[in-house]
Amino acid sequence: MKEVSLLIFEDVVLSSVSGVLDILTQTNRFLESTGKDPAFKVSLVSETMKNIQTSLPAQFFCYKTIDEVASTDLIIVPAFHGDPATMLSKNRATVEWLKEMNEMGTEVASLCFGSYFLAEAGLLNGKSCTTHWTAVEDMERRYPRVKMLFDKVVTDVDGIYTSGGAFSSLNLILYLIEKFCGRDTAIWASKMFSIDLDRMSQSHFAVFQGQRQHEDEEILRAQTYIEENFHAQISVEHVAEQTNMSKRNFIRRFKSATKNTPLEYLQRVKIESAKKALERNNYSILSLMYDVGYNDLKTFRTVFKRITGLTPQDYRRKYSRV
Predict the structure, then answer these.
(1) How many angstroms separate the CA atoms of 77 and 12, rounded?
(2) Are 119 and 142 in contact (CB under 8 A)?
(3) 3-state secondary structure 138-201
(4) One domain for residues 231 and 197
(5) CA atoms within a 13 Å half-sphere pointing along the CA-CB vector of 209
(6) φ and ψ of 293, to 5 deg
(7) Cα separation of the two ends of the chain
(8) C-alpha span between 62 and 171 (Å, rounded)
(9) End of a domain among 180, 205, 230?
(10) Are residues 12 and 157 in the same domain?
(11) Separation CA 81–CA 132 (nearest Å)
(12) How far apart are CA 223 and CA 87, in angstroms?
C-alpha cells in the first residue's frame, strides 16, 4: 500500500484536495470489490497546525504535521490561491521539508500551481515540468534551470511528477493510479470520474497574453507594434526598424526579454486572434486566415495546430456555439 501525504495549507484550492481524496478513495473501494488490497493510504498533512481554516469557508483536520511524518511514499502538493511569492514565503518550512523528504527517497507530485513548491525546493532543477498555463512565464523567469513544457498535462521524471492547470491536474492522479495499480484500474477510474485517460496536451486551454514581465522598453514597444499590426504583412526587419536596431540585435534582445523570437511572438498573436474569431463567429476558415495575416491555408493550419494542439476546425467544434 502506498503511503500518500496530501499537503494542506491555508490558501489551498479545495478541488485539488477533494478531487484527490475522491479518486483515490473510490479506487481503493474498487480494488477491494475485486478481491484486492487497497492501494493508497492517504493522510492530510499540514506545516504546523492540525486544524486548518482555509481562506475559503472550509476547514481540514490533519492528523499529522510535517514534523511528525517520518516517512511516506508520495507527497502530493495541491494548487493554491494567491501570489506565488507570498505563498512560498508563508510555507517556507514546507518547501524545505519537500527537499528533505525527496532526498530520503520520497516521490513528490504537484497539482497545477503546486509546481511552485517543487521548483522552489530545487526538485525540478534540470527536469521537465508543467503547470497552469498562466504560471509558465513567471516560472520561467523565477526558475531558469527548469524546462517548462506548458502544453503537457503530466510529466514524470525520476519520481517527480507535475501536472497541468486546474481540473486537468486530475489526469496526474489517473496516471499515478495506472503506474501503481495497472491499466485496468486506471480505465475504471477514468470512466467513473469521466476524465479522459490519455489527454496529452493542454495547449488549447491557453490564452496568449504577451510576455511583458520585463523592463526592456524598446522590446515592449515592438510587442505593442506587433499586437496592433499583426494582420498586416509585417516582417521581422520591419519591426526591428521601429526600434532603431539591427535585425540581429533586435532578435537577440527580443528573445532575451520574451523567451520567444519575434517570428514566434507574431505567430502566437495571430493565432490568438484566430482562436477568438473561431469562438465567436462562423466565418469560413479561409476568411479568418486572411484576417489574421496568413495567405497560405496549409501554413495557417500547421502553425495553428502546433500552438494549440488542435486544427482550426477542431478548435471551432470544441469552443464555438455560433
Answers:
(1) 9
(2) yes
(3) HHHHHCCCCEECCCECEEEECCEEEECCHHHHHHHHHHHHHHHHCHHHHHHHHHHHCCCCCCCE
(4) no
(5) 11
(6) 95, 20
(7) 50
(8) 25
(9) 205
(10) yes
(11) 12
(12) 31
Report if pTM > 0.85.
Answer: no
Interatomic CA distance for residues 146 and 128, integer angstroms: 6
Provide the grid cell at 143.
526558475
Residue-by-residue pLDDT tens, the chain, 322 positions? 999 999 999 999 999 999 999 999 999 999 999 999 999 999 999 998 888 888 778 888 888 999 999 999 999 999 999 999 999 999 999 999 999 999 999 999 999 999 999 999 999 999 999 999 889 889 999 999 999 987 788 999 999 999 999 899 999 999 999 999 999 999 999 999 999 887 766 666 666 777 787 889 999 999 999 999 998 889 999 999 989 999 999 999 999 998 889 999 999 999 999 999 998 888 899 999 999 999 999 999 999 999 998 999 999 988 887 6
- C-beta separation of 225 from 240 below 8 A: no
Distance between CA atoms of 90 and 92, rounded to whole angstroms? 6
What cell was used for 43?
493522510
Residue 209 CA: distances (Å) to CA of 119, 126, 152, 215, 239: 23, 27, 19, 17, 19
Quick one: cell of 304? 495553428
Number of domains the chain contains: 2
Catalogue the E-assigned strands of the chain.
2-8, 40-46, 51-53, 59-61, 64-65, 74-77, 107-110, 128-129, 147-148, 154-157, 160-163
Distance CA 21, CA 16 (A): 9
Helix (H, G, I), strand (E, B) or coil at 53: strand
One domain for residues 272 and 292 = yes
Q: Which domain holds residue 233?
A: 217-319
